Amino acid sequence: MASMPSSEQIHSLLTATGASGAWYCDVSANKLYTDSRFAELYGFEPQDGIMGIPSQVFFQAIHPDDRARIRIAVAGVLAGAELFSKEFRVIAPDGSMHWMHARGQSHLDDQDEVIAFSGVLVDVSERKRTEERLRIAQSAGGVGTFEYVDGFATVTVSDEFCRLLGLHPAVSLPIQTINGVMLPGQPQLIPNGRTKDIPESLEGIFQIVRNDDGRQCWIARRGEVLREGGGYRLIGVIYDVTTTKLQEAALRELNDTLESRVAEELAIRHVAEEALRQAQKMEALGQLTGGIAHDFNNLLMAISSSLALLKKRIPDDPQAHRMIANALQGTQRGAALTQRMLAFARRQDLQSEQIDIVALVDGMQLLIERTLGPAWTLQCDFPHDLPAVLADANQLELALLNLAVNARDAMPEGGMIRITAAEERVTAEAIPGLTAGRYLKISVIDNGTGMDDETLARATEPFFTTKGVGKGTGLGLSMIDGLAKQLHGTFMLSSSAGLGTTATLYLLASDKVVASQPRLSVVEMEAPVRPLKIVAVDDDFLILMNTTDLLADLGHHVMDASSGSEALELIRQCPDLDLLITDQAMPNMTGTQLLELVVKERPNLAVILATGYGELPPEARGNIVKLSKPFDQDDLAKAVAQAIRVA
Amino acid sequence: MVEKFEAIVGLERDALTEIMNIGVSRAASSLRKMVGDQVHLSVPSIDVVNRRRAARLISEREISELIAVRQDFSGPFSGRALLIFPETNSLELVRAVTGDELSAQEVIDMEHEALAETGNVILNSCLATMANMLKRSLSMTIPEILRGSGDSLFEISDESSSDGLVLFLYIDFAVKKRDIRGYIAMMMDIPSLEILRELLREFIARVVGADGLNA
């Protein structure tokens, strides 16, 4: 049996080591010897500890939840395990709980039989709390700790450390396992113990491939390098910085591409601005052209009417009559020109009707061929079952003729001109300017000289012509463009120099397929009208005089007014008035506004609205007879007769 | 049908850890007698896992090839015990147990024999302690040396089912200043593990008492 140390010896030794108690268990005698601190902790007399008490007392003060575990461990020691190192809770006599770390060992005799079991208790309550705080700090903060002493092949790590690298939790990991998760080419997370250089700092960011799911992550490492003798100890933490790194990368990417994205945006903006400028230019030109055409129309009417009246009054001189006929022809050509200008300005008066395009082209084929001349042939290529289109037949004929002439001019040596038509379903925004729907696509195709890009870009601008001064008005294509747009379709040109040009009209398909109506110019002979009392209104003195003269010549009694208000005055003074004829475009009060007022006072008064613009305001329908400017005496006479009839 | 095996936890696990501690303590004591007072062994952790997981646990920690000493055991519970080292450690272990007195060539020549002997001491101590503490007897085959990956040591292949469980111990070898680590694995089927569990319960009842709380 081993010799027992004296209780004083034990006491002074333990005080020095900071232990909270010590025991010695004599296995064969089944006696437990303790120092006074052990006795105090367990709550028995110190003297009993010195004299020895039954071994079972060892388990008495241990927390019930820990007791079985410690019994097993003690059984292990008594059966031959060398070391005893366990932590458990002890309930002191005052009820307070202490975490104890018991460290002990067995004593063997010559036959390796256990004869005694001794050890010390150390109060580790404070350490336990610190450990708990550290554990929570690690799991809550996602921070893993490590400690490495140089020369060793393993690193002491925390569970969180293992989790961050995607490894199974362990208390220690081989260096090569830890560095095995680094992305190839990365520095080592833990410096290899074989290199003798002491690392300067633990600051660093590493890219890893997590061991469990293969995810690539960024890990930051911080910590301290502690020098110990000739070597060193690394104590540090790691944490995941993937989110930050990804954000950084995204920001950098944004920054790097900023210039090109700005350039791209600017280019888009430039194109949009260019398109807007072009649209504004065309709009301004349209308004200007429309305005000029309107005024010019009035002048032409004054001239032609005056000529017509003059013709009636001069003596029967053939030469004078020929000169008047020439002058009248000149005004008719002028009127045709203003029609084209109005077409470009999209202000012409269109008679929309359903048109069978095949019949229309068939009907004008001879006309086109005559116009083209013998060196050019016309080939029409139309499938069956084409839908009808909504358009003005006269204007459409004119447009096709114009395109055919252009095609001819592009092929001075002669050649073939093709006219094709096909139905096409257009989706939204597929073709600029077209809403989704069914369209008829009519193309006039030549293989002539074609146009370069610059010419093509300006081809539909009004007054742009390549035909030389005096040969063309420059209104042909712009007129067709205007026509197409007024009919809610569009006009497109494609061309390349030397290869020819394709001019395409998109027109809205009409749902009902109708046989083309034979278009007869029905001249209804109106019965001669009795002399009437008429008020004529126009702000343009020249026109007003002209209208008045024409009506007077027809035998009517005419009063003139130069404004709407003046006209109202006259109407009120003249209860037996038969007819009001007014211009539409007047300052202060338009013709429509005037008619509204008049209809309230004299609902049965016959009215004629004279207008040079294409469209009547929608509300101004009903019994209002419309008269297009310029008009001649015949037109006027017919309008008067009609107005009297419907009133 | 795959049988379910509830993990060995709580007191059963404590008891098994303690029994293995006794086993490796005895092994250390035997090794000390072979090589002087240079050897310390301890068992920090113990786990019951399936074979695949055991192979992964090892390959996560060891990049090099592995070397193992294998002994089969049979009795009330039967299985196959493995003492596994990283291959780079094996010559180191041979040097440790032979006391640095041999030349490099002699160490290589002796490696096989020395490893078999060392493995036999350690595995024998563990199994004999288990048998003894659980009051049963086990018989063992002679040691064999195997080399290979975790998968091959745990007999994981496409054909064989890898449902078998492994009692897995990580043991620390503290041999002077040498860094040697190793693992003990005992592959058992579920019926054997259930018997082991029953024997552990008997052991606990003997040591702790029926209610586990007797002071």
Give the N-to-C terminal Cα separation of chain B. Answer: 44 Å
- Overall average pLDDT of chain A: 83
Dominant shape of chain B: globular
Low-pLDDT ranges of chain B: 210-215
Q: Oligomer, anyone?
A: heterodimer
Low-confidence stretches of chain A: 513-525
How much β-strand is present in the residues of chain B? 25-35%
* Spatial shape of chain A: rod-shaped
Strand content of chain A: 25-35%
Radius of gyration of chain A: 55 Å
Helix content of chain B: 40-55%
What is the chain-wise order of helices and strands of chain B?
A: HEHEEHHEEHEEH
Total count of strands of chain A: 24
Q: Which pair of protein chains has the largest interface, and what are the residue counts?
A: A-B, 32 and 32 residues
> Given the helix and strand composition of chain B, which structural class is it?
alpha+beta
Largest sheet of chain B: 7 strands, antiparallel
Q: Which percent range fits the helix content of chain A?
A: 40-55%
Secondary structure layout:
The complex is a heterodimer of chains A (647) and B (215).
Chain A: H1 7-17, E1 21-26, E2 31-34, H2 36-42, H3 46-51, E3 53-54, H4 64-78, E4 83-91, E5 97-108, E6 114-123, H5 125-141, E7 143-149, E8 154-157, H6 159-165, E9 172-174, H7 175-179, E10 204-209, E11 216-228, E12 231-240, H8 242-256, H9 258-313, H10 318-344, E13 353-355, H11 357-372, E14 376-381, E15 388-391, H12 393-410, E16 415-426, E17 437-446, H13 453-458, H14 476-486, E18 490-496, E19 500-510, E20 533-537, H15 541-553, E21 557-561, H16 564-573, E22 579-583, H17 591-601, E23 606-611, E24 625-628, H18 633-646
Parallel strand pairs in A: 14-16, 20-21, 20-22, 22-23, 23-24
Antiparallel strand pairs in A: 1-2, 1-6, 2-3, 4-5, 5-6, 7-8, 7-12, 8-9, 10-11, 11-12, 13-15, 15-19, 16-17, 17-19, 18-19
Chain B: H1 10-35, E1 39-50, H2 51-61, E2 66-74, E3 79-86, H3 87-98, H4 104-133, E4 139-140, E5 144-148, H5 150-153, E6 165-175, E7 178-188, H6 190-208
Antiparallel strand pairs in B: 1-6, 2-3, 2-4, 2-5, 3-7, 6-7
